[in-house]
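Aim 2, interim progress: modelling of the 6-O-phosphono-alpha-D-fructofuranose-bound target.
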Amino acid sequence: MRNITLSRFLIEEEREKQVICADLRFLVEIVSRACKAISVSIGKGALAGVLGSAGSDNVQGEVQKKLDVISNDILLEANEWGGHLAAMASEEMEHPHQIPHRYPKGEYLLLFDPLDGSSNIDINVSVGTIFSVLRCPEGVEPNEQAFLQPGVKQVCAGYAVYGPTTLLVLTVGDGVHIFTLDREMGHFVLTQSNVTIPADTREYAINASNARHWEPAVKRYIDELQAGKEGARGADFNMRWVASMVADVHRIISRGGIFLYPRDKRDPSKPGKLRLMYEANPMAMLIEQAGGMATDGRQRILDIQPTELHQRVAVILGSKNEVERVTSYHSS
Ligand code: P6P
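Predicted structure of the complex, ligand included:
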């Protein structure tokens, strides 16, 4: 597996399995190159003066870190000239980014959270880039409406995690594959293919400081985990919360677990904190492709029909049997 680069993997997916076409292969390669550039920027940190806030807020009303803006710009500049995209959408931009008239357009819509978990940047904790690819409907202007497709319509999803190593985790609908950045050679090398998530787990991830805001179903589920051997589950559980979705999801992709960012009562207008189009949907596709499950507590995330580009959603994903259990508590 050592010598299978991302490019070779994509060529073989295209040639031998007809799973992807040349334009989608090109798109993934361009995004991977942008993630390499983001990894280099992050790696320089304070040495390049890229830490700290950019002095602006994004459309979510969140303080933008310098690296949020840098990462967003890297992805826009890398993708706008290639002729593979109809438009792009980002957590950092209120409206879709149109392809400049001087460049040709393609059939794909690229959505991304350029630097998820960026509140962790200044404390040197893993962060990541999350991306999702849809087809632009035939003959449709690539405005916001064109993006509002349920997650089942994704043709590709992935994330880069910038940690001790930089990894690219990718699915084009044919399983989940992990590539490690070989910094000396400057390319991603396939290091794990057809990743599967165990159906059971003894590890959960949730921000427990929100417990008083949770719905009864989540409260019941977490209380049972915390009751351990003496409780209804008859087993002890462990908890992890990195507060960087990419890092928490990568742990689940790597060894199983359940991640919950449920709806809570703090702001009824927000059915959760995480965004559907460029966080929940790509992660849900990856989790399902790896044999896991992803719901909002009541329905499959990938079936949700979006109404707004930046809409939020409750997220419960990971090991199938645990996600099924906590989802069943919502309906009982
Ligand atoms: P909290 C990062 O800001 C993020 O969007 C996700 O990456 C992460 O899972 C979540 O928010 C953390 O939220 O409320 O625990 O800080």
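The domain at 6-192 is CATH 3.30.540.10 (Fructose-1,6-Bisphosphatase; Chain A, domain 1). The two ends are 47 Å apart (CA to CA).
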